Amino acid sequence: MVMTGPEYARQLRQLLPPGLAWNLDEGSNLRKFLEGMADELSRADGRAADLLRELDPRTTVELLTDWETALGLPDACVPAGQTIQQRRSAVVAKYTSLGGQSRQFYIDLAAALGYTITITEFRPFRAGISVAGDPLTNGDWIFAWQVNAPETTIFEFRAGQSTAGEPLRNWGNDELECAISAVKPAHTEVLFAYG
Q1: CB of 79 within 8 A of CB of 86?
Q2: Stated pTM of the model
Q3: 122 found inside a domain
């Protein structure tokens, strides 16, 4: 919690030794000096609290560009000119991504970018394992999987996350396709289905 100027001024007055030499009457030069110091201490305390907020990529505002630089953003999947909210989501996705090949890894990656997806895995038809009604597919389908997403994902303006001058709505799925294609296993084929 950030202390206010009057709270700091009260503390500074209490730190002075007792005695007649310290004139702390309202309007005295010493009291004005302490109040001026207190305002600056409160400002510095507030900026320290801001720094704690900036250390977390989910809440950063002032250091967003530094986070992007450290993580190599914007890149081919995260084009320049995005909203603050989209840029922050891209930073969080890249920062928290440890890699993986599970369904949940790709679902979490998409969620970090603001998309809700499901994944369908395919398998080739095998006698004795497959049943009537299963699609007849060849052996290559073992390396294919499908990302199912809404036809259009809308990013809405959010108070506290977006800034003045940004559009109230922004949509598109290009970032999703690029991000998943960039981290998919090289031997697999990913298909994207919308709607």
Answers
A1: no
A2: 0.57
A3: yes
